[in-house]
């Protein structure tokens, strides 16, 4: 009888990296350009420097827009540049805040108390 060969358990898949960044371009279909900023101390002087990394992320539903803060997760290569996918929208950006401004602009302004205009013949104010 043959002995069952014991195959080693496959290594548990390592956790995928997640980053939080800002959507800077939504012009491509199902693809978003996300900038992730990071701070690190200068090796010699210790001043914190700001650097950014540009990631192209897959957004299946085209639900994110410029200015949104999103969480992205590392994934298998989806195209030449795409190695990330959008997990969730952390905070909607300026696009949705501006959407309501058009309705407010159509409403007539309410008139407040009338302010008397200065009389040019009155020389006491000079």
Helix/strand class: mainly beta
CATH H-tier superfamily of the domain at 18-96: Nucleic acid-binding proteins
The amount of helix comes to under 10%
* Coarse shape: elongated
Task: Compute the number of helices.
Answer: 2
CATH architecture of the domain at 18-96: Beta Barrel
The overall average pLDDT, rounded, is: 83
CATH fold-level topology of the domain at 18-96: OB fold (Dihydrolipoamide Acetyltransferase, E2P)
* Low-pLDDT ranges: none
The largest β sheet comes out as: 5 strands, mixed, barrel
Structure description:
Strand 1 (18-25) and strand 2 (31-41) form a beta hairpin. This protein is mainly beta. The termini are far apart. A 5-stranded mixed barrel has the order 1-2-3-5-4. It has helices at 94-99, 101-106; strands at residues 18-25, 31-41, 48-58, 69-74, 82-91. The chain has a domain at 18-96: Beta Barrel (OB fold (Dihydrolipoamide Acetyltransferase, E2P)). The mean pLDDT is 83. It has 2 helices and 5 strands.
């Amino acid at each position: 009888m043959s002995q069952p060969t014991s195959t080693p358990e496959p290594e548990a898949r390592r956790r995928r990296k997640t980053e939080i960044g800002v959507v800077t371009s939504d012009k491509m279909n199902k693809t978003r350009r996300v900038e992730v900023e990071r701070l690190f101390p200068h090796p010699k002087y210790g001043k914190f420097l700001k650097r950014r990394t540009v990631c192209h992320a897959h957004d299946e539903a085209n639900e994110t827009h410029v200015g949104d803060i999103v969480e992205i997760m590392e994934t298998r290569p989806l195209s030449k540049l795409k190695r990330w996918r959008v997990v969730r929208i952390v905070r909607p950006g300026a696009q949705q805040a501006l959407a309501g401004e058009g309705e407010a602009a159509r409403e007539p302004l309410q008139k407040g108390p009338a302010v008397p205009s200065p009389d040019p013949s009155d020389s006491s104010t000079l």
